[in-house]
Amino acid sequence: MIRIGINGVAGRMGQRIVALAAAKETFKIAVALEAATHPQIGSDAGETAGIKPIGVSITADWEQKVDVMIDFSSPKCTDMLIQNCLDRETALVFATTGITPDQYNRLCLAAKKIPVLYSPSMSLMVNMAMKLCELTARTFKNKDTDVEIIEKHHRFKVDAPSGTALKFGTIIAKEMGHTLLQHGRNGNIGERSRNEIGFHAVRIGDNPGEHTIMFGLLGETLEITVKASNRDCYAQGALESAQFLFGKPPGLYAMDNVMGL
Q1: For residue 218, what pLDDT band results from cuts at 50, 70 and 90?
Q2: Closest by CA position to 84, among listed 7, 162, 190
Q3: Count of alpha carbons within 13 Å of 187, Cβ hemisphere only?
Q4: Per residue in 241-251, pLDDT tens?
Q5: Catalytic (active site) residue 153
Q6: Which of 76, 91, 93, 157 has an alpha carbon within 20 to 30 A of 106's alpha carbon?
Q7: Per the residue annotation, which of 28, 141, 154, 157 is the catalytic one?
Q8: Does 227 participate in catalysis according to the annotation?
């Protein structure tokens, strides 16, 4: 049985991880972490997630042994979480978006001492779509191809473009040699640059996540779209990542490794 901790346990994603993990014999929820000022501190993590009590209280203190910590929280917590995982020699599944380049570098340094799996999206289908985009970009890199990325998320998301959209862009830019990432357009900006990837962020209702990547030639367009109908795809991917990471040596892993791509 894999003992997991969940950082950001009272958030939308944290609650779904609790609900799914509690239903699996593979996992034991050992630690449920939240900010010390959170109103759910002291509550049972299962009840907060809308299931029966699991006997684990939400706390700001990490006291029990954990095999793998899963983080869906805020970049404000990242530095402390990385240090706590290093101090406890605990594997880390890191799914928080909006981190700074310095924080990403700290994750990479931590991976020299503990196993770290980092992905802007825990969705299996999103990561498959990334592979399809990589192949498309490689195939059409010398065809004067336009690339545009539209992402849609719920009204509560604080970063834009999404970390997943930026990851799509990074993969495509690497294959095609594009260097300019254009975030939206406004005014008389002139003809589209031949060296740019356009990003467009939509924030609407409770949309859990949708990405469309468009490759355009004169006369034809290919669109690759991946949609989440609820948050369980991200929670399930995080749990599969935790199972993959359990017992692994130090290193920086990705969803490619989990999926065997």
Answers
A1: very high
A2: 7
A3: 1
A4: 999 999 999 99
A5: yes
A6: 157
A7: 157
A8: no
